[in-house]
Every structure is written in structure tokens, then in C-alpha cells.
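As promised in the previous annual report, we have extended the structural survey to additional targets. Below is the entry for Gloverin 4.
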Amino acid sequence: MNSKLLYFFATVLVCVNAEVYSEYEEGYPISNQFSKRHPRDVTWDKQVGGGKVFGTLGQNDDGLFGKAGYNREIFNDDRGKLTGQAYGTRVLGSAGDSTNYGGRLDWANKNAEAAIDINRQIGGRSGMTATGSGVWDLDKNTRLSAGGMVSKEFGHRRPDVGVQAEFRHDW
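The corresponding C-alpha cell record, generated without further manual editing, is:
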């Protein structure tokens, strides 16, 4: 299973890289000659099945990086909108390498929204972050808004918790 997924991502990256490489050539004059210049970051997305495969390959001062994932809308009806995402990143740098992967669910309706993200660093820690917030009209001039978050690294310390609420009445 794991080798099939790796093979799939490698195939997609090679195909997209070949396609993007040919699309992003720029010519600019240098001493009456034209050189080909390629951008440092390449971002792509493609509709696959009922969702979208996305990714970025690039370079910054920390080193080389690659991000890829799959995003899918699970439902969008009177219950609200629920989307799911699976993602992964790889960074190669002089200070060390890192690989992360995770999954995320986002839900929203006209009054509220919530999200949960579970992630893992290879050779490191796992964690979870859950957030939620909402605004409710109690009457024409009165609103109640509330939100909160919980963040936890598994196996270490207590979770970080935050809560905020506001009751507002316009006179």
C-alpha cells in the first residue's frame, strides 16, 4: 500500500514537472543572447476524481521543499460544507531534513465553522489542533460570538486551550 502511494506521487510529480517545465520558460536578453529562466517555485493543481491534487516544489534560504496533497469536498448542502484534506511536506536543508504528513477536516455553515488537523513528523512528534467559532444573531441588534481552540502534541504536556466569547448589543 505504501509503495503504491509513493509510486503514484512520484509519477504525478514527474508528469507535472515535465509539463510545467515546458510552460514556464522566459526569454530575456543578455548581451544580445536569449537565456532560458525558470521560476524557483512551481505550483500546480489538477482535478482528480471528486477532488483536487495540489503541490508546490521550491527553494528558499532554508533549502529545498516540496508540498503535496489532496483536497475533496465531502458535502455541501443544508448541513453546511465539509471538506477533507490529506497533505505531506518534505524539506531538505543544511540544518537537517524533515518530513511531515497529516489530514484535516473543515466544516462551515452560515453561523459557525470548525476544523480539526492531525499531523505527524517522521522521526518526531504527532499533534492535533481543533478550532471552532460561530456568530449567532439573537435579535435585530444583539449578537453572540464565541470561539475556541485546543492544540496538543501527543505524549507531551497538557494541551493548549483557548476560549473567547463576545456578547454585543447595538443601541
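Helices lie at 2-23. The chain has one domain: 39-169. These points will be discussed at the next consortium meeting with the crystallography subgroup.
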